[in-house]
Amino acid sequence: MTTRPSGFSARSTAEQVTQGVDATGLTAIVTGASNGIGEQTARVLALRGVHVIMAVRNMDAGRAVKEKIVKKIPTAKIDVMEIDLSSLASVRKFASEYISLGLPLNILINNAGVLTLTSMVSKDNIELHFATNHLGHFLLTSLLLETMKKTVEESKREGRIINVTSSVHHLFKEKDFQNNSNKIWMSYQGSKLANILHANGLAKRLKEDGIKITANSVHPGLVQTNILLKKSFVQGILAILSKPFLKNAHQGAATTCYVAINEQVKGISGQYFEDCNIGKASLCASNYELAQKLWDYSFSLIHSN
Question: How far apart are CA 171 and CA 176, in angstroms?
Answer without folding.
Answer: 10
